[in-house]
Amino acid sequence: MRLFRRRATRTPEVPEVRTAWPDQPVPPDPEAAATEFWRAWFDLLPEVNAALGDREPQRVEYALCRLVARLHPDLHFSLDRGQRAVYALVLSGQEDPRLRPYTDAWRAAAPEDDAIWEYHDSVPPVPDPTEVTVNLGARRIALGDVRVAVLVDEEAAVVDVAVHHPGLAGLDEAARSAMTFLPLDVTLGERLAGERLRRVEVAENEPEGAITLLELRDLVRGLDRRRPGPVGGDG
After folding, report:
1. For residues 203 and 138, is the Cβ–Cβ distance under 8 A?
2. Angle at 122 between CA 187 and CA 67, to 5 degrees
3. Looking at the DSSP assignment, which residues form a beta bridge with residue 149?
4. CB atoms within 10 A of CB 14
5. Quick one: which of 29, 24, 37 has its CA closest to 107?
6. Torsion over CA of 178, 136, 82 and 54, rounded to 10 degrees?
7. Coil, strand, or helix at residue 62?
8. Phi and psi based region of residue 191 (left: phi greater than 0; alpha: psi -120 to 50; beta: remaining)
9. Each residue's pLDDT tens digit, 6-55
10. Helices 61-71 and 30-53 sit at what angle, rounded to 10 degrees?
11. What is the pLDDT of residues 61-102, one digit of tens each?
12. Which of 30, 145, 225, 231 is spaced 20 to 30 A from 49 at the CA atom?
C-alpha cells in the first residue's frame, strides 16, 4: 500500500497560494549529494517514524520533498508499505538516464535494510500482481484478469507486448493508457520494464496465445538473465 508518492519539486502548472516553491539547483557531485541525503534522512527519521506511526504521513511530506529535491529536483519518491520491512522509501528517476547517476549514488550510499525500513532506487514489483485490484471510480480492475500477447526479440533482448483486460474498453483514453502500463510496472518493476519492454499496445480483444502477468514476469526475467545489463547501454 502506498502512503504517498510525490515529485521532489512541484510542477509549475499547479499553483501554490501559500508559499512559492523555491528553485532547486542540481548538485554537481551525485556522491556528495547522496552522502548529504542520508545524513539529513537520519536527522529526519524520528519525525518520519512518528508521523507514520500516527498514520499522518502528510506531516513530513514537505520535509521529504525538500530532502529529495536537494539530491536532484527531478526525482520522484514514495513511501510505501515494505515487502520485507514495515516501510519502504522508493526514489525513482523514471528511467531518465540524466538521473541514473543520482539514484545509483543514493543506493550505493544507502544503509542496510532493517526491520523497519527498506530502500529502492526504482519502483519495485509487487509480490503477486494477480492479487491487485485497482479502483477507478466505480470500476474495479482486477489485474488477475489481464492477459498479455508477447513478441520476443531475442537478438535485441526486448519484448513487444499487447495488453488486454475486458474492462479497458470502458475507460477514457487517459485511464486506458494508465491501466495499460500499470500492470506491467507492478509485474516487472520500473527498471526491468524500462529495460526489457520495447513496444506496448492495447489489445481490445484477448489475443490468441496470450499469457498471464506471472507468466510474463517469468519470461522477461529469463530473458534478462540471459542478456544481463541495460539494453542499448553499458549500464
Report:
1. no
2. 145
3. 162
4. 8
5. 37
6. 130
7. helix
8. alpha
9. 566 644 333 333 444 456 789 999 999 999 999 999 999 999 999 999 99
10. 170
11. 999 999 999 999 999 998 988 989 999 999 988 878 899 999
12. 30
C-alpha cell read off for 60: 513530513
Q: Give the containing element (helix H, strand E) for 106.
A: helix 100-108
Which pLDDT does position 10 carry in this prediction?
A: 45
Strand, coil or helix: 177: helix
Measured distance CA(53)–CA(26) in Å, rounded: 33
Strand blocks (E) in the chain: 2-7, 76-81, 87-92, 117-120, 133-136, 139-142, 147-153, 158-164, 197-202
Tens of pLDDT, residue by residue over 53-62, are: 999 999 999 9
The contacts of residue 206 (CB under 8 Å, 6+ apart) are 147, 164, 166
Q: Looking at this protein, which amino acid is placed at residue 63?
A: A
pLDDT for the residue numbered 6: 56
For residue 140, which of 115, 118, 170 has the smallest C-alpha distance? 170
Beta-carbon contacts of residue 35 (< 8 Å; ≥ 6 apart): 109
**pTM of the predicted model as reported, rounded to 2 decimal places:** 0.70
Contacts of 123 (CB under 8 A, 6+ apart): 78, 90, 92, 185, 189, 190
C-beta neighbour count of 29 within 10 angstroms: 11
CA atoms within 13 A on the CB side of 119: 14
